[in-house]
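ugh finaly. both done.
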Amino acid sequence: MDASRPKAGRTRRPIRWYLLMLLAMAAGLAATAFLAGGWILTRATRVALPKLMRSIPAEHGSLQRVEFDGAEFALLASAVWSGISLDARLPSEKGSPPKSMRIKIPTAMASLRGLFPPRFDLKLEGVRVESQLHLDAPRDVPFAGGEFDTPVQRIDDGSVVLPDVEFSGSLRSSIRRELPELLAFARTGLTTRRLSMSARLHFTLEHVPTSVRLETTREKGGTRLRINRQDLDSLSRRYSQPLTLAERELLAVNPLRAPMLLRMKDYAERTARRLARGAKTYNEDSTRHVLWSYWLTRMYGPEFAELAANAHEEGSANSTEESDRDRHNNGLGRDWASSGKTESQVLALIREDSRVRRR
């Protein structure tokens, strides 16, 4: 019995030794990853960038340039990239030239969420879109530039969280899964993709720098981009006739159209006031409603134009008779826009057509 004990002891010692060796190797690998992981990740990212740029389908635009300062591994299986700067070209729409955007992202973090298949939560902090954004509009639109400045000057202070990004198959296939919904969100402010975003939208209104906060809400299985209602309440107080609650809600759920809608409202009011002062044949109120509804239809179609015009009437101080007259004149503006009339033709009709209801 005693002779067997040393043998058992000799058997146990190598097992402990192997375990210690494995632990030491694991610690060494962890230390190597901690000390050199940033360098490895940086090099790997730089190698992958050309492939990433080529992976975007042509119909969705292109990346012209992508640069970053560095990368590192963080705790909880996260990778962090810093100082990202990129130039993107969006696809052209309705025959308009492609739009270019310069985007800066101080910090991007990808946190591992699952392994089979690999899934990550992607978080972008401090996003800034520096290029001025000219919104799509007819060539003869009179309120998108000049004295009315650029519709959207920049977007900054952005934070975007895109959860559960799946990376399976090729890089191209992964991008094809995500990109259409993200582009739809950028164009319309609505997507079925679950994400969260906050940012500040800057534009100029009547030569006054203006900004509103953007935020996302979940509704009916999708994500909607909205303007913060308190910011719209403050903006409304700048007008002699404050925006109705229905108008503020319409602007809130159409944040990418809001600067142009407000600009359109200002243009119709200014033009109606100028024409009424110059000729008694123009009635300021009827001119404003017909012209505003005309351009709403030219820009966004008759259905949205009617929705916006009705929102203006809901909750207003107008009598029933005044609201009926305004709705009638709004209808004329929609009809003349749908029939392809120019603004000069519409202004002549406002002055001469007996169907226009004047006060």
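ok and the 2nd:
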Amino acid sequence: MSIIEAPLAQLTLFRFATAGSVDDGKSTLVGRLLHDSKAILADTLDAVTRTSERRGFGGENGSTQKIDLALLTDGLRAEREQGITIDVAYRYFSTDRRSFILADTPGHVQYTKNTVTGASTADAVVVLVDARKGVLEQTRRHLSVLRLLRVPNVVVAVNKIDLVDFSESTFRAIEADAQAVAGEIGLSDVLVVPVSALEGDNVVERSAHTPWYTGATLLEILETLPTTDELERGLEPFRFPVQLVIRPQGALAPELSSAFDAGASFRDYRAYAGQVASGSVSVGDEITVLPSGRKASVVGIDFAGRALDRAVAPQSVSLRLSEEIDIARGDVIAATGTFGEVKQDLYAELCWLSAKPLREGAKVLIKHGSKTVQGLVRAVTGKLDLETFGYGAVSGLELNDIGTAQIRLSSALPIETYALHRRTGAFLVVDPQDGNTLAAGLVKDHPGDHEDERYVI
């Protein structure tokens, strides 16, 4: 697969992440994708080759691979020394069909929060399973997190298939287990592919060792899966979190002068900058500003010094409105008639990411988009059991627990149900003392005790 010769801006951008248990071969798989798609610079490849030779890499278990592909992604000194991934490593590469942003995430349980970070904005996640070990508890945890985050595309890569002699029966058993877990938690259309990251089987090129597998290679799958924006385009209403109110202090850009009536002064210019989180907006559309509820219409859309007639997700633009409304950073501009009520009481799913446990009565900060308010945890109503995928009654949450809680906010926020709006239905729980992130939160649409609830969001 060759590198694209056309400008990258013409390619579809696809974000994906890896996940899996310790030593499942995530970094090696990423290295294989980079190596076989010829996305590695010559000097980088030479450095990795020298390091691999110095460490005596090559030939293990009959392997013909002469370099340690994991070195292409494990950039931290602690990662190189321990032979594990700790932080999320982002890599960029392209083929003749698509441009990719890849997040290689850790496998250790204590770094689950890094996996959440990498998967939260992904169009797809590749979950690795060691063919010798099958589906483990960490696999179930990762699949549960992906269901919580509503990642639109999930691929299970059964790695190290070469170490089980390319056994079809082993692969089919793991495939059935993975599909069963996915079915229990509500993940649909999960693809399962047998690969050898070390040898390259079914990663970029089809393998002659697996004639019983007739599906696509991993890269072919990633090149053809739809992006989140493609899946949601036309389905979600317009949402625009305001990041900045623009009031220029100098002369107005000449490119924008035509957008104003003759004789209008640049001092009259007021616009609201941000990124279109979902849907689209056109000049003339009616909008509502949240949480105030004030209404207006869009009279201008500015982008990079020029005026547009329409903007779609995920474009970053500035909006000009027909009315002078008190709008601040953190407010949300939405299509009129598409938003319910702003919320001051939340019922949410929490993926607890801190060693500091959550207890009822805890005072926290809730960060939603660019706005942060105080919050009080009124009740912890359940904890997800990774074996049964039911909820048990608890009084708190510990590191890596997934559970439900009721939170009271100091002021109402324009938050929506995550199942309907992935971007506006998510928030962070922050420690008010040190500013560290405590949890990733996803808004649910009904309060109550879910001790016997199945895993349905």
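summary for the 2nd one i guess: The domain at 8-230 is CATH 3.40.50.300 (Rossmann fold).
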